[in-house]
Amino acid sequence: MKNNVLITFPNEVVKKGLWNNKDLIILDDYGFWVYDGSSGKRKLKKDPIEYEDLSKIRDELNWWSPIFDRWISESFMNEYNRIKSLILINQIIFYLKKYEIKHVILMTGVVHHLQDILISISCQKLNVIQLYLYSNVIDGRLLALKQKGNIFKREIFMYKKNKHKYEKKIEAFLENLNKGYYPKSNNKISAYKTSYIIALLILNLRGLKKIFYVKKKKNNAKIFQFEENILGFASSLKIVRRQNQFLKKYVREALTDEEFHDKTKNKKTLLIAAHYQPEATSFPEGGDYSNHIEIIHKIRSIGYMDDLFYKEHPGSKMYIDPPSIFLTKVSIYKNLEFMKQMKEYNCFFLNFDFKITKNTSTNYIPITIGGTLAIERALNGYKTIICGLPWFKEMPGLIHLDSIQDKKEIDELTLGYDKKIEISAKKYLLKVLNKNTFLNPYCIGTSKKNDDDISLGLEEFNKLIEHLKK
């Protein structure tokens, strides 16, 4: 039995570097490229496709609707894209079977584009192992995540064949954190990205350009390509205005630090540390909790009826986020209707500057879908409640929301500093990261360029492929 490896949608540098690896099958926008031993060349396959029964796939596609909503601007295109997805899933399944592919490497940390959805669903149907390359927050290097089934079955791939160690890296990460800085691998929130006037100006310039722009003829050979992130002028304007309305109202209604402390004096409180949305860390990594409204419903369902507090993510101030995307589309999730609903649930807003990363308060505990906040607090000896499926979900100091059965368990939580959590959290990260990460010259999961050598990165890639074929 063969044990072929497939890599999906690599960038041009990776594709060129791995093109002559005979053990590798490559999928790009054009289709499947397979190395032909007789000619010594890689060829695009055009086999007659057999038909699968995909009657149950529609439900799986619908589960991914937040990603469709993020990237497809007009809802009337959703049915077309679902049908296109079914056709392409059928083709992927055919080639996975034909070449007896056992491992698929996706050039991303987690599914967050339409192409990735097709790969994940196809692999699930055939029980093929998916490997995702996740940029870890400590230093931005790649951690391989293994998934056999859906994202709820994702786990860390303990490769342990690289040399990179993390004792000093974790110390530097903590030193940076305790000086009050964001992790160095984080996307920078600049004045340019958060300017409403600049966003409107660029929107108008783009609108004028479209009037005189002659659209290029579509390349119909790129069968796996979806038209993502294409918005008309009116829709773009509405998205930005809704975000601006939300931000203004949020700032007006947010409590000061003093008001928050007065409200929470002498009682244990839950504080929702919001995620930046739309982003893969909230969906699909949020699992059953990709929206903060769903989190509140869960909290209320276990009998917790006290006031809740909500701290918005600073990234929600960004209207644009070039070069990777243009409009952030924050207002899909954060808008006036969202605020109104939160207030009806007795949820109070905290100001953007409120610090919760390291706080010695013993009367509140943060709740995050799966943010870096949880790592930061654990390394400093504090507990955090998580709701989603981050790669570090087994880290000491983290409590999953699903594990809490009633309000009494929240009341009994000890929230102060715990030396055992600090020590065991660091041990956990060292166990997971030491000798287990890859170079990231491809800038996966980060917009920041680094000095990683592309040739060394490709050498590591080839060794990984060789390992998977054994």
Write the layout of secondary structure elements.
Elements: E1 4-8, H1 12-18, E2 24-28, E3 31-36, E4 41-44, H2 57-63, H3 65-71, H4 78-98, E5 101-106, H5 114-126, E6 129-135, E7 142-147, E8 154-156, H6 167-178, H7 196-212, H8 233-253, H9 257-263, E9 269-273, H10 292-301, E10 308-311, H11 336-344, E11 347-350, E12 364-368, H12 373-379, E13 384-386, E14 398-400, H13 407-411, H14 419-433, E15 437-438, H15 454-469
Parallel strand pairs: 1-2, 1-5, 5-6, 9-10, 9-12, 10-11, 12-13, 13-14
Antiparallel strand pairs: 2-3, 3-4, 6-7, 7-8, 7-15
Helix pairs in contact: 1-15, 4-5, 7-8
Q: Order of SSEs, N→C?
A: EHEEEHHHEHEEEHHHHEHEHEEHEEHHEH
Strand content: 5-15%
What is the number of strand segments?
15
Mean pLDDT: 91
Q: Can you tell me the residue ranges where pLDDT is under 50 for at least 5 consecutive residues?
A: none
Task: Please tell me about this protein's structure.
The protein is α/β, with parallel strands linked by helices. Helices cover 37% and strands 14% of the residues. The chain is built from 15 helices and 15 strands. The chain has helices spanning 12-18, 57-63, 65-71, 78-98, 114-126, 167-178, 196-212, 233-253, 257-263, 292-301, 336-344, 373-379, 407-411, 419-433, 454-469, and strands at residues 4-8, 24-28, 31-36, 41-44, 101-106, 129-135, 142-147, 154-156, 269-273, 308-311, 347-350, 364-368, 384-386, 398-400, 437-438. The strands form two sheets. Strands 1, 2, 3, 4, 5, 6, 7, 8 and 15 form a nine-stranded mixed β-sheet that branches. Helix 1 crosses helix 15 and helix 4 crosses helix 5 (114-126). The chain starts with a strand and ends with a helix. The mean pLDDT is 91.
